[in-house]
Design goal:
With about 210 residues, this protein is mainly β. Helices cover about 10% and strands about 45% of the residues.
Amino acid sequence: MLEFSAGVMARIALTTLWTTQQTGPIMISSNDFRPGVTVEWNNGVWQVIEAMHVKPGKGSAFVRTKMRNLQTQNTLENTFRAGEKLPQAVVEKSDMQYLYKAGDNYALMNVESFEQIELDEKTFGEGAEFLKEGLEGIQILVYNDKVIGVDMPNTVELDVTETAPDERGDTSSGGGKPAILETGASITVPFHIKVGDKIRVDTRSRKYLTRVN
């Protein structure tokens, strides 16, 4: 049987204790920032949208970023020192389908496991205005076993239910008119769009893209 000295045993005990106590967050360097990287920063969970690594002729290198808060959808531009460490946020994404409105909540189904969850409007964000029963391509963002946000499909196709008659001759309002979509969302559409038209809308900018039919 192997025998160890008291000194070796003490070092083994200290190593074991140190290992079991390492429960802190994994850190990531700003040098590794790329689009899609998620970090804990500024009292939230943020995703890197753009990252430009700059090494000026004089002074220290830095990383210029544009980041999106996954909980509020707000975006910020910020500069980090090269090599600056931040806690990395491991965010899991699940593909969901919208089922129906459940009181003040929205019921969704995981397209792989078929498990259903309900999210409130605050968690869903402004994208809730474009929800139509059966809509797929929705992703929920889970961090530390909690849903922190929702990514809507970039575009949706919806019917126009209310809008003024063709007003293409009226250019005083800047080339568009208000319209209500079947989900209740209100956007600006071109003058030639009429009730019953199906249109494609960018859910990120809330802008009309094209008529589908």
